[in-house]
Amino acid sequence: MATPISQAAPSYEARTRPSHVVGWIALAAVALIALPLVLPSYQVSITTQILIFSVLAMSIDVLAGYGGRTTLGHGAIFGASTYVVIYWTAVLGGGIWTGVALGILCATLLAAVFALLAIRTSGVYFLLLTLALGMIVWGLCLRWTSVTGGENGLRGIGRPEFIADHISFYYAVLLVVAPVTWAMWRFVHSPFGLTLRGIRDSESRMRSLGYNVPLHLFIAFVASGFFAGIAGALYALFNNFVSPSTVQLSQSVAALLMAITGGVGTLLGSFVGATLIIALENVVSAFTARWPTVLGVTFVLIMIFAPEGVVGRVRILLSRRRKRQSSESLN
Amino acid sequence: MTKSILQLDHVGVRFDALRAVDDVSLDVRRGERRAIIGPNGAGKTTLFNAITGVVPPSSGRVVFEGRNITHAPPHRRADWGISRTFQITNLFPSLTVRQNMELAIRGLTPRKFSFFGSPAATDEERAQADSALTLSRLAARADSAVNELSYGEQRQLEIAMALAPNPRLLLLDEPAAGLSPAERVIVANIIRALPKDITIVLIEHDMDLVLSLVDWVTCLNNGQFLAEGTPADIRNNADIQNVYLGKARHHA
Ligand SMILES: Nc1ncnc2c1ncn2[C@@H]1O[C@H](COP(=O)(O)OP(=O)(O)OP(=O)(O)O)[C@@H](O)[C@H]1O
Ligand SMILES: [Mg+2]
To answer: Is residue A57 one of the residues assigned to a domain?
Structure first.
């Protein structure tokens, strides 16, 4: 299953015109800045959540879409950061920014441990191994009651005054997510990012060309965990509460589904995927408590009918049209 | 002895009970053009895998430029100057020809660890890619996607990618496999025109092609060394006629 996901990712960015990209980004930026002026406060809060989960989904896409390694452990890495931020501030009484830094650090270290254990596998084995590692973290959060509060979870101390209300927090998150997105974009399009796509296409060729494949995957995994940790720390500020459900499997599944729905290997597709999945969750929750079931069914449907995702599909259509136009102009 | 670039010293590769390569010793001189021939399953590709580290030998030693590389991983051997093509086309199909070449070049440079740098090729990388593409007669297709290339062009890209890092030892595994007679001629001309300072070891089934390209031939059979000699010797060697040419004719 993991292999088709990565293979479904087409790479047409070599031919997307930069002027178009800049135009779209400017449009998106204006829309994101203007949103709180038109949306009611509850929906501003949902948009904030979408931004946070977009970062998580993109961090998964770095591995799945570029390195060809589909992971189900990123919910745990994300949630570890959330736990650390809230534990540091609420239980130990530490400062919030130190907490955020520690949360991201712990997520990165956890990702390094996951990576050491998982990078030599691929395909379904990688998927299952990361899933199992995530389950261990979940079990730990559930059972280690003296630290994690067990099933009751931990409540935070609230956000600092200047970002306490929905709107200013939204802007604060936007101010973090924008440069983080830019950094991830640079990362996957860097010479190093190209090596990940080489690994996705052919590990044996990469090795014979002089690449230490496990090292590249390790670095990618750790970087991906760092970005997931940023999302997890933002989530701590957003939710002000953490429990085992934050690190559980359905979190990893939901985030992976966001990346897939948007289009694996497109990076920015994660924003589309996160919007669709979180919107769906909100609609479904109004009618039934069976969100995990709906999530599972959605996953299966997407994998069968649109494995290339929304942005992936749009890219394919665009490149077909471009090809048709260029062949017409030749005739 | 000092002119030797690659020595195999009683190399064996076993897969469980199967001795795919069985006690093979050979010595390739710097600048030599060497062919490895033998019927299907003779162990030719496995021998390449032992030289490049894909499958480490289970016995014997591989020495490259005086260094014992028997147990070094493939990427280290690439770093030391060994490069190869694959019998079954092994490219990066979702990337463009240029991106394939950039990966081929950066494997041996620190740029592969540029995490936030520009993806654009540097002038130097571009020149290196263009020169390998020109040698492989693929320069005109540099901006195509790999999956738009014809099969013959993909085989040419195989060679271009192996040439790009400026190797000292180039291993070509059936570069003309599956090509039409016309395409074979192109590949033969490419190989003939390669710089003389690159040592080349070539696996090839097409006798006319291979004997016109090399100055020394080693013949394997059932994993074992059968015979070696100049192309003229090989043409007249009765053992090889029996084991290899006869068989090949039956298959074809
Ligand atoms: N990874 C492997 N595991 C098990 N057996 C293998 C493996 N690789 C090769 N073999 C076996 O080793 C023997 C030699 O195979 P090899 O591919 O080296 O032959 P070859 O001379 O390259 O043949 P061809 O001309 O068909 O390419 C064959 O019997 C093959 O089935
Ligand atoms: Mg072979």
So the answer is: yes
